[in-house]
Amino acid sequence: xxxxxxxxxxxxxxxxxxxxxxxxxxxxxxxxxxxxxxxxxxxxxxxxxxxxxxxxxxxxxxxxxxxxxxxxxxxxxxxxxxxxxxxxxxxxxxxxxxxxxxxxxxxxxxxxxxxxxxxxxxxxxxxxxxxxxxxxxxxxxxxxxxxxxxxxxxxxxxxxxxxxxxxxxxxxxxxxxxxxxxxxxxxxxxxxxxxxxxxxxxxxxxxxxxxxxxxxxxxxxxxxxxxxx
Amino acid sequence: xxxxxxxxxxxxxxxxxxxxxxxxxxxxxxxxxxxxxxxxxxxxxxxxxxxxxxxxxxxxxxxxxxxxxxxxxxxxxxxxxxxxxxxxxxxxxxxxxxxxxxxxxxxxxxxxxxxxxxxxxxxxxxxxxxxxxxxxxxxxxxxxxxxxxxxxxxxxxxxxxxxxxxxxxxxxxxxxxxxxxxxxxxxxxxxxxxxxxxxxxxxxxxxxxxxxxxxxxxxxxxxx
Lengths: 229, 224
Prior knowledge:
Strand content of chain A: under 5%
Shape of chain B: globular
Helix content of chain B: over 70%
Largest interface: A-B, 58 and 55 residues
Helix content of chain A: over 70%
Oligomer: heterodimer
Number of strands of chain B: 0
Mean pLDDT of chain A: 89
Number of helices of chain A: 9
CATH superfamily of chain A: MetI-like
Low-confidence stretches of chain A: none
């Protein structure tokens, strides 16, 4: 428990608030990389996922992509891209790695959201004379929104975790204190850094849980789930 | 290819080390998740608690969980034991939900038929419920196995040598091929273990051949 006290002392020391490796700067960098990467991944993943969900085509490709993404070690992917793009273009390399890691969850969230919509609802829309665009925009997208937000939630957590590892290539962010602390055998710093990263992940997860609840269309009795077909 | 060919021995050794660190967590995870998942399935009130706690544990980034565990369990932060413990926790977190879903999916009529035939709770569990929940549990186990093998590479950051060594060593020596060899080796090991699990599933559950298992609530992407 002594270590925990040391870690808290490290965490609440005034030095943590200033400098390029201070907590505010590290948190800002961490969040910047996370949301930039998730935004790019969403711009790619959501339209593609909707296309797959709406047409029912290409599902196997999406499933295979998410399976493959699971097998690729995130840490190796970052180091590989940084080395390939050159150390001067470290941020670009890291963001590319984060985007690649975030796409599968978002893609899955987008297409499972649409797949989970009752086919009878979709057919009712068509019977009322809706065009395919209207079916997508006004029926499938709103009803599938909770699962899409769920996909974004996994993507954000995945990138937060990977961005922590990216501190190994000196990208900055909250992983710096942990990785540098391990190298220096300063375990108060390691534990303090770990607490901050854990809290960030929990807060973001909680925020997205609320967002997921808010995304459920009013009047919908049961939240759509992947198996309700 | 020259680096890879010159270092096949090293890659082989690291692969064995990697398996020694990543296979036990998968097995421990299964052994812990089956009773936990069954309890979550059987007792509705416990379900919320079990799934919330495992959900929170799954949320924690690996590099945050690894330094936190020694505080609770009193082990060294920079040890293989710590890595195995962290990987086991993630494995349980993925598997508990699959196990609970698997038991939920067992048709109640089948369960009642077993009761009517005089099956006691224990025999019902082993010969009726577990085999019928098997395909869903296997789907979860496959996801768990692949992400555990891939995630084990972060061990190198706490000084535990496995295939992750090729990443840091390749990065320090600026050898692209070494990192690439590590990524490919990890993916191949994961694929191989996945195929083994599929084959084991077909042998143990011959009735599932050709059946599609719903992949509900399984994480789509990787982990870090």
